[in-house]
């Protein structure tokens, strides 16, 4: 499938910010089943984008911009050709052995409730792939999708006790539970193409990858209760959201910041909606 | 507890050569005079303003660290041994860090279990495959040493992150020279005053290639609420460099600048006393306001040197500590000159059962604790405390290590109008630059002022002494 992505972030300031500094993880890399046809990042302010690779092999762009106006736009836009690999990943960039991804983080700490949930879900299944499929379904049915109660710093434990959250929270719960079962797992940020014709979205998507002996890394999406398909554009991975966050930044000066995000994910021949 | 070695009286009670002058001097001196000098010392410290803050105390205002006027003396041959051992150890630590963040040969060889590194929060993935100038990670190490016999020194801890205490080494000497010129005239004591010069030379030697001939070095402090703030301002002053906080620095176009009244000035080397977690909200804790946004990006691009490097905690972590003799052998193919304290790792079931059996004889430490907190001293603990600690260890064995209760050496100390032996340790400071290791002869001697106490940490009632290394 050829997927066209456009991701526009607009910052409004009541009084102009003097300086904005950001690190973006918004550029996909190719792997088997994902070919980046074209991709660009455009920042409205006058600045230099420095391209680097982070610890996990994600491409980062950093910039420091003086913002003389009351608005800053960051536009990311491109096209990716994808193939369905039944969630199996090959040809990805790996900087650490799988065991590294057993490491707990603040956002993915398994509290007693998650530990019990994971043990329950694993049940009698010993085969890791069976456990992971069961976990995908269980997180999907246990945690209701709801954008209201959580935010970007919500932990797996908080989201799990609410039994509510967005794709980021469901992924954190999955990762915490899978790691507690001894399955190396990581967080993935990217885009998801919807097959219902709706292309306008409020944010990017998040799912997980777990490492299974003999198979390698396999992508699971607890928000949709399925393995990743050719509807997924994989952009960045990390131990948790913070490691794969599309934007980490700060600003000096400027008050009353408001943020507008417009994401469009369409098949290349589809008309983008406004 | 075993009989402990007294630095002055030795094993057989006869005064050891290095202490003969001190012994004679002490006998000549009336307790009243010594008492008066102690009060003068305290007055001087108050005037200079050497203080430290203790975290977690309700009234956590700054306190004066107790100073003992009787010096701790090391002979020239004892120092030579320490110097060789410290140089070897720090060399191995730097090679280990380069390897851990590079080829990971020591993991492939199975010398250190992989999970001990990868599952460890102080291992910083951000440093993976990152080059640092001249392969130096630990520019400043404060290695804690204890002595248990005439020839036996153990390394207790390798402080490889942001070790503090060197300001006391310098100030203690200055005060001693003012108060006791007569005692100095009886000895040839190696100077320590050149430490700031040695530190500055070390820092300049590791400037990035992009730096000008005269690199700009700054000291980055978390600010006045940090317990070591006095030391930060003291050192910046002695080094003649700017003392900055996060908000004084900015990153632009991948370069770090310092705000000055004449506009931004490029920064080449940052002697940072801010912990990894708080260095850069874009790379580490997003809620940190102590750091510099974008600093890691400039660091990764090789535009600035951080001293110490990021991620050095994976060298001084208590879980890694017990492997240090193997680390020395692995990288240098040499036998370690300085020994480790024998250590049981509770993660190992055999070690764990030994530790639980002998809990009342051992010192148990949390792998990630510091400052003597979260520690059990078996022989000093009552039944309730032992039982509580047993439960904690059993719940999370991998978080604990245990060591025998060491008979730390003692040194004569002035206490309540008399001289009595008190337990001491030693923290020498090891500087590693482009191609030299520099160790100023001396260090910080900490003393447990309570009779029988083994806890020398300043946060728990320990004091300090001047440390003399004798020129032959």
Automatic annotation (TrEMBL), chain A:
Gene3D superfamilies: 3.10.620.30. SUPFAM superfamilies: Cysteine proteinases. Coiled coil: none annotated. It holds the Pfam family Transglut_core. Residues 159-224 form the Transglutaminase-like domain. SMART domains: TGc (SM00460). InterPro entries: Bac_transglu_N, Papain-like_cys_pep_sf, Transglutaminase-like. This is Transglutaminase. It comes from Rhodoplanes roseus.
Automatic annotation (TrEMBL), chain B:
It comes from the Bacteria. Pfam families: CP_ATPgrasp_2 (PF14403). InterPro entries: ATP-dep_Glu-Cys_Ligase-2, CP_ATPgrasp_2, UCP005522. Residues 71-448 form the Circularly permuted ATP-grasp type domain. Gene3D superfamilies: 3.30.1490.270, 3.40.50.11290. This is Circularly permuted ATP-grasp type 2 domain-containing protein. It comes from Rhodoplanes roseus.
